[in-house]
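Sequence in, structure out. Go.
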Amino acid sequence: MKQLVALLSLVIISGTVSAQNSQEHKKSVEEWHQKRIDNLKEEDGWLNLEGLFWLHQGVNTFGSDASSDCYYNNPNFPTYLGDFILKGDSVVWVNQIEKGALVNKTAYSKGKTVTVFKWDGTNEQAAVFNFNRFKWVVIKREDKIGIRFRNLDATTLTGFKGIERFPVDAKWKIKAVLEKPQENFLMITNVLGQTTAQKKAGTLKFEVEGKPYSLDVIDEGGVRYFITFADATSGKTTYGAGRFIEVTKADADGITVIDFNLAYNPPCAFTAFATCPLPPAQNRLSIAITAGEKNYGHH
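Output:
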């Protein structure tokens, strides 16, 4: 009897969801995907980015004049809006127009200076700028400090038609077992070439058609693991630099589920103005994961 129970447990761990639940599963994936689309379209989503300006130490001029250090080519934007002064890890804004520019919803007169960023270990205190339908904020990526710029009427947003996906298939909802990490960190490199240590939750072990595979996972807090991975579809039907997926944290027995139908494109698939993490070598799967989002546009 004990052997039978053990065998049934193994089947549950390595198997996929039953066909009788496929319709409910499909509905839940569709609902998740709609929320995903809604988030992309939000004011702070990824579809309206039109600039990423890295600052150098000292004065950085900002405007639509081609000589600007932070040059934004748009006839509806002032030729000289102001200056970002970078000193160490702090940024001061100097307003250079009479009216229209807001910092945290407050208007400042021409020549007025205000500290808009001072590194304290997070980006949470960075000021939010607005000018008409444009919005921007200071960001920090390791040793780089820059301006992430949005046009709330960007054609990449207004012309967005959705993301092509593979058909939802319950076979890609796979039980997995978490193997505790031997090291507590996972080295991740981003598109800027910067490599940082992320908290490693462990390695998820799973099977597809009887063959074993694994993915190293990052623990960002909360109730889910974060995974960046590539597979045999990457650079073909899916985004070349890989995709992301989030997985519910393992239970007390180390068991969770990877639903590859929820695999999604990183921000860099939609815009050149994002700084996405890349999959580590061990997360580049030899199998083709024909589930989740396909490539978007020409990125």
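Check: The chain has three helices and 18 strands. The chain has two domains: 19-43+163-283, 49-153.
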